[in-house]
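hey so u asked for the seq, here:
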Amino acid sequence: MIRFIITLIYVILFLILGLPVMLVEWIVGKFNRHAGDIASLRTVQWGFKCCLFLSGVKTEIQGLENLPTDPEKPVLFVGNHNGFFDVMIMYTLFHERTGFIAKKSFKKVPSLNLWMMRLYCLFLDRHDTKQGLKIILTAIDYVKEGISIFVFPEGTRSKDGNMLPFKAGAFKIATKTGCPIIPVVLSGTADIFENHLPLIRAQRIPVIIGEPIDPNSLEKEDKKHIADYTKNIMQGILDENNARLEDIRGGQKKIESKQ
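ran it, structure tokens below
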């Protein structure tokens, strides 16, 4: 409970005390948009890293070489969704400007909504198909401007760690712009918070960044069903990682039994 209280106090202080910083970054952006945007991204990344530290969360990242570093080549980041900490972990990975398609409810949270808009986040109403189409079209425009987009195509958190069906709409961002898709697979994030509310428990979280998927190089049928194609790749990564973790746990139990 102490860890939860400390983390909550930190988040509140960051959202309040960060407002003057945001104002400075907004002014910088008026003279140099890219510099202002990157300053905001780095500020939020620092805030997320501090929050993860206070929560006792450590990440084991594989595939860093698959992350794009060219500001002129935006991508579509696709992640699986297990817990509230997924966004924090994902955002610490990005080198360049990256927006996020989030639930509309976040737009009502004071200060947080301003930071999200500074990062080019888009607020999606899941029950409004017409508004959802506008969000996708805006995201496509962002990619054309050099801003990457990050989505959870499951649409909501998985309750058991297994991937839910991927919604195809978000993948139009890649097929309409030709930008690569970068799959990012997280495992065990629900064990940080969701599985034992309101406690926060320290966890070591595997993060696997898959190889880029070029939508233009896919076979016609794979491109037509690109959501399922991407999900199958990510499911394979997740299954392989879970098997590796089980082997490690099995080896640890054997050592403990011998002792």
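The beta strands are 57-62, 76-79, 98-103, 122-124, 148-151, 181-186, 203-209. The helical segments are 2-31, 33-54, 85-91, 112-118, 129-144, 172-177, 220-224, 226-258.
lmk if thats what u needed
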